[in-house]
């Protein structure tokens, strides 16, 4: 039990729940119900749904969104339960096993609209991983996803606008808001914090030490200490440490993909000729060459290496790798990659971590781990904890203590060292400790026990930050958004009208103020301003799914009417019935 009790201002809501005869089970005992995994099995009976979300220790904002949605569902006659799980179990349930109805989570990437290809294309609907967890199958969306990849620079914005409109109509998920990204840093030990985003590798390179030998980070998430597999969806969200341990051909810098492990590349049509940097070695001393790069792309496309009954693609980087149609090694430093996209966005395929063939080639067998329920075709590559990780990046793994700390050492012969065109690691060690909450992470920086909060700070903690000459609160362009996802494989979520009506039970503006304390922006579409058409921009409210109510409270009469017009009906006790 997580100790949830009704808010003092919720008396009217509770009275209405009691009047309709559908109260939240367990509310009087102060407990969130952890219950059903499927909708009601009686096709003519009252509709029941379960909302899955991470426990409050992992995501305070996410569980508050889920609770409010559950309350609103109850108010309009839908029996709703919360299923709270650990963060890794949430990702496993949703992304691997597709065992959910609705869930609340945070999407980690939405800078370039091509991320929607991985997120929504029907070719991925039955695969496990970040790709299409909703199980959406829409010919119109598929067509537009393909067109935006093939469109030239001038035509692409128009195609993307059509795509975003089609996604809004299908409503496989309801985007809620973009939270501000705050991190606390010490400026008496390092300068240069503002040069790059602290959500990826470049933020930790090129810093200017003020007499410091070590860079001390603090995390509020234990997952990175348990598992260092770059392919794991359960343990990986945004991969700061993957970025620092593994090199990729390119790096995202100020919105553009620039050469990194690649010294250069050139395009002829949709085929890129890539030249690698000279004398690159893996952290175990083995040489890195073009064969490792070719292996990586082929392996990520099929981790069984054609040893299974069907391809077993890696559950991460699927959308990026799906761009690559062919890889040919020309010599030790040169290879060509043919992609099914224009160079922009095709160059984004260069952002996957390059893996050492001699480490990963033996991880192709079907996974067989005690206590781990995996889908057919899951290989050892997907479930290994990959400790110690062997990469070629600017930092090498040193040691760890699970749930407590991570340590990395600088790779002194990394190609960025001494290259005036690239930022380099300027400290000998990167030491990361785990603190359970944003408040204790802030205290660690303020007490000079840490130099940076690697994790973003939760909204509730920002008011408690005290800035000084030594301690500064940084903001970075947001790269994530909160959303409610629907499992379109299961009735009644197969119906886009039903999904859209559920989205209209979310007062996003109210959630931003009450849950995020104003430290977020409500959204109606998962796109940055650069790509967002005016028709989907948030002005005075949600242009796609306007809230059926006011000030967070649903208008029950209006909601009932909307459901009835969509073909649903209510019983004599005010409960919404599943359609037969």
Protein model, in words:
There is one protein chain. With 580 residues, this protein is an alpha+beta fold. It has 3 domains: 8-179 and 480-577, Dipeptide-binding Protein, domain 3 (Roll), CATH 3.10.105; 182-220 and 394-477, Periplasmic binding protein-like II (D-Maltodextrin-Binding Protein, domain 2); 245-384, Dipeptide-binding Protein, domain 1. It contains 17 helices and 25 strands. The strands form 8 sheets. Strands 2-1-3-20-4-21 form a 6-stranded mixed sheet. Strands 15-16-17-8-18 form a 5-stranded mixed sheet. Strand 1 (48-54), helix 2 and strand 2 (79-85) form a beta-alpha-beta unit. Helix 5 packs antiparallel against helix 6.
* Amount of beta strand: 15-25%
Mean pLDDT: 89
Shape: globular
Structural domains: how many: 3
Gross CATH architecture of the largest domain: Roll
As a percent range, the share of helical residues equals 10-25%
Instruction: Summarize the biggest pleated sheet.
Output: 6 strands, mixed
Strand order of the largest sheet: 2-1-3-20-4-21
Indicate the structural class. Answer: alpha+beta
H/I helix tally:
17
Quote the CATH topology of the largest domain: Dipeptide-binding Protein, domain 3
Number of strands: 25
């Amino acid at each position: 039990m997580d100790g949830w009790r009704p808010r003092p201002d919720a008396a009217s809501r509770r009275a209405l729940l009691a009047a309709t005869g559908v109260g939240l089970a367990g509310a009087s005992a102060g407990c969130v119900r952890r219950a059903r995994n499927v909708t009601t099995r009686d096709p003519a009976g009252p509709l029941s749904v379960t909302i899955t979300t991470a426990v409050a220790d992992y995501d305070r904002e996410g569980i508050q969104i889920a609770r409010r949605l559950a309350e609103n569902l109850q108010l309009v006659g839908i029996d709703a339960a919360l299923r709270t799980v650990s963060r890794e179990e949430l990702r496993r349930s949703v992304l691997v096993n597709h065992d959910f109805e609705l869930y609340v989570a945070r999407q980690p990437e939405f800078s370039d609209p091509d991320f929607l290809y991985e997120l929504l294309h029907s070719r991925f609907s039955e695969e496990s991983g970040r790709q299409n967890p909703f199980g959406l199958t829409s010919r119109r969306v598929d067509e537009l996803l393909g067109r935006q990849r093939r469109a030239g620079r001038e035509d692409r914005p128009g195609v993307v606008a059509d795509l975003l409109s089609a996604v809004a109509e299908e409503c496989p998920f309801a985007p809620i808001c973009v939270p501000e990204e705050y991190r606390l840093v010490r400026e008496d030990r390092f300068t240069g914090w503002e040069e790059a985003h602290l959500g990826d590798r470049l933020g930790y390179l090129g810093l200017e030490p003020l007499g410091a030998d070590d860079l001390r980070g603090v995390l509020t998430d234990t997952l990175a200490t348990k598992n260092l597999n770059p392919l794991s969806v359960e343990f990986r969200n945004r991969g700061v440490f993957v970025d620092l341990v593994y090199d990729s051909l390119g790096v995202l810098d100020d919105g553009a993909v620039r050469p990194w492990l690649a010294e250069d590349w050139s395009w002829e049509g949709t085929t890129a000729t890539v030249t690698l940097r000279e004398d690159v070695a893996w952290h175990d001393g083995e040489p890195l060459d073009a064969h490792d790069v070719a292996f990586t792309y082929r392996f990520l496309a099929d981790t069984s290496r054609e040893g299974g009954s069907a391809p077993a693609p890696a559950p991460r980087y699927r959308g990026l790798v799906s761009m690559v149609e062919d890889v040919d090694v020309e010599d030790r430093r040169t290879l060509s990659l043919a992609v099914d996209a224009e160079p922009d966005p095709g160059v984004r395929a260069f952002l996957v971590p390059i893996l050492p063939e001699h480490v990963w080639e033996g991880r192709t067998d079907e996974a067989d781990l005690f206590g781990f329920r995996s889908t057919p075709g899951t290989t050892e590559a997907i479930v290994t904890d990959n400790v110690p990780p062997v990469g070629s990046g600017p930092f090498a793994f040193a040691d760890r203590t699970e749930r407590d700390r991570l340590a990395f050492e600088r790779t002194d012969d990394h190609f960025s060292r001494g290259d005036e065109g690239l930022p380099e690691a300027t400290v000998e060690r990167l030491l990361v400790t785990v603190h359970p909450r944003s408040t204790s992470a802030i205290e660690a920086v303020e007490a000079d026990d840490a130099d940076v909060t690697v994790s973003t700070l939760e909204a509730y903690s920002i008011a408690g930050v005290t800035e000084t000459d030594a301690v500064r609160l940084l903001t970075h362009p947001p790269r994530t958004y909160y959303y409610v996802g629907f499992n379109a494989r299961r009735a009644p979520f197969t119906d886009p009208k039903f999904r859209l009506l559920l989205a209209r039970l979310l007062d996003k503006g109210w959630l931003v103020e009450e849950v995020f304390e104003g430290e977020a922006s409500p959204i109606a579409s998962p796109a940055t301003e650069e790509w967002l058409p005016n028709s989907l921009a948030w002005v005075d409210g949600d242009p796609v799914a306007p809230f059926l109510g006011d000030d967070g409270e649903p208008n029950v009469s209006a909601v009932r009417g909307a459901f009835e017009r969509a073909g649903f009906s209510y019983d004599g006790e005010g409960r919404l019935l599943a359609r037969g």
